Structure formats: structure tokens, C-alpha cells
Amino acid sequence: MLETSARLLRLLSLLQAHREWSGPDLAQRLGVTPRTVRRDVDRLRELGYPVNASPGTGGGYQLGAGAELPPLLLDDEEAVAVAVGLRTAAGQGIEGIGETSVRALAKLEQVLPNRLRRRVGTLNAFTVPMLRGPEASTVDASVLTELANACRDSERLRFEYRDHGGSSSRRTVEPHRLVCTERRWYLVAWDLDRSDWRTFRADRITPTPPHGPRFVPRDPPAEDLAAYVSKGVSTGAYAATAVVRLLVPLEEARRAVSPSAGVLEAVDEHSCLLRTGAASLDVLVIHILLMGFDFEVVEPPELTDGISSARDLLARALDRGAPA
């Protein structure tokens, strides 16, 4: 009985690799006959695992989706990865997902072997999460699921959208992809009323079903959708934009400039270009100065005038505060 149980676990582990196995391949892996494999598959079905079998020379066995979630088998690295992912998800900007992640993590840690529990515990003990800032927002997990399903099924989506000023409008779009940053989720979609691609913040979307009909997906607005959204939210949405050359390597700049704050492009091993935007040139000057890097202005020339005005203002403040 013990040998049979161990073999069933091994068979389940192979099937959970999400690939189709032929009967002879499974028999060879398990060191048994194809007939024994068939009996073991029947036992797994009795335990609630939906094992699909396709007949013929090209057929085989594959674990399918069932009505209920059966127990999963994870190896050491997978178990640690899932535990770390759940703890990370607990702090993300998805409404309601934090508590759910904590419950799932508690169940997983309860059954982790000591050696794996120590690994996860060490990582948690020596990792300090950065708190989400005031600009961070949360989005309902069910809304994300609904948006993702519409993208997957190529189904027209209808929703109420609240803009930055709080005004609402009704939108009908052909959704393409969800893009997430460290603070927000965005939907990239073709706006039917405006006949153009648009990027929508997911936390401002209120779906208004029914959705549909289905559509033939269009070519996306860019191959790199992450860069496309980054450019839109960091420059395209602002009245004042600028290009400056940061006198630091690209990797160093990336540690200080998030995708929602600007688009970076390498120039050489010592510098990179930053394209960014703000509500006004004065705010843009402060935004660039707070990065703390040496830089030079590429465009527009008016930005140099704004920097000069800020320099003169600071110089006068220093002169007035200097000791007698």
C-alpha cells in the first residue's frame, strides 16, 4: 500500500507538469506496466483528479481542470516561490487580495517542511517592504478579473470611467492587455467612440455589463506595451514635457525613476536620456532636481530658464540666511 501511494504521488507530480504523457512514457518513468498506469489513473480519478485520456497512437494522459481545486504537489523551489509570491501579493494594490493572500500563506506555511519554513522565514525576517505612497491606489480584484477575461475572449467592454478631475463618462472599448506598475494597473484598449488607442487606469473603471459582441483583435499600438504605457502616463498626460540627459548610467537611473515617472533611454555607459512630464515647467524643475542626478537640458529651452529662476531664488534665500 505504501509503495502504491508513493507511486500515485509520483504519477500526480508528473501529470501536474501540464504536459501530455503517453502510457508507455509514464510506465517507464514509474517502473511499472501500462496496465498499472491505467489502474493508477483510475485511482486518481476516484480521488477527484480529472485525468483526461485520449485514445490512439498519438494519445496520452493529461491532468485537466475540474469543478473543485484538488491538492497540488510542489517541489521545494516551487513551494518557496509560491510562499514569497503570496507575501508580496499581500502588499500590492489589489483590493481584498491582501487578506486572501495571508490566509493562503498561512495554509501553505502550516504544511511546509522545517527546512523550507526556515528559508521563507529568513527571507521575510530580513526583507523590509516599502510602503505604498499616497499616490498608490487599489483596484477591486473582481474588476481585474473581468478586464482580463474580456482581453482573453476578445469581447467588447463597457464601463464608466472617472477621469483625474472626477468627471465620469461611458466608454465602449476593445480591450487588448492589462499593464501593471509598482503602484497601478492600466488597461490598454481601442476606444470605439474616439477611434484611437487609449490607456485607462483600472481603479477608475466601473464595468457596466453586458459586454460584447466579440471582435477581431487589432494590431497593438506598440510591440513593447510596458514602454507604451510608461510614455503615456509619464509624459503624454501632462501639459509640460521635457527631455534631459542624466549623467549617470541607465541602471543607476532606473533605481530612482519609476516607469510612471519617466521613460529612460541609454545614451552611453555613463549617461541616459529621460523623457518626463509635469503639470507645469516649475513643477518639472522640482521633479528633475529631486532625482539628485547631475543633468543637462536637451529640450525645451524654456526649462533652462526655469532652472535659472530656481537657482536665483535659492541663491537669494541663502544670502538672506547667511550669518553676519
Question: Summed up, what is this model?
Answer:
The protein is of the alpha+beta class and 324 residues long. The protein is built from eleven helices and 13 strands.
Please give a structural write-up.
- The chain has 324 residues and is α+β, with helices and mostly antiparallel strands.
- The protein is 42% helix and 23% strand.
- The chain is built from 11 helices and 13 strands.
- The chain has helices at 2-15, 23-30, 34-46, 76-89, 97-111, 114-125, 141-153, 225-236, 250-254, 281-289, 301-321; strands at 51-54, 60-63, 94-95, 139-140, 157-162, 168-180, 185-191, 196-201, 205-207, 240-246, 263-268, 271-278, 295-299.
- A hairpin with a 5-residue loop joins β1 and β2 (60-63).
- α1 (2-15) crosses α3, α4 (76-89) runs antiparallel to α5 and α4 packs parallel to α6.
- The chain is elongated and about 90 Å long.
- Residues 130-134 have low confidence and may be disordered.
Features:
single chain; alpha+beta; 5-stranded antiparallel sheet; elongated
Assembly state of the chains shown: single chain
Tell me the number of helical segments per DSSP (H or I, 4 or more residues long).
11
Order of helices and strands: HHHEEHEHHEHEEEEEHEHEEHEH
Low-confidence stretches: 130-134
Q: How widely separated are the two ends?
A: 93 Å
Cα-based radius of gyration, to the nearest Å = 27 Å
Structural class: alpha+beta
Strand sequence of the main sheet, in spatial order? 8-7-6-5-9
- Number of beta-strand segments: 13
Largest sheet: 5 strands, antiparallel
Q: Beta-strand level of the residues, as a percent range?
A: 15-25%
Q: Could you report the average pLDDT, rounded to the nearest whole number?
A: 81
Q: Per the principal axes of the C-alpha atoms, what is the gross shape?
A: elongated
Helix content: 40-55%
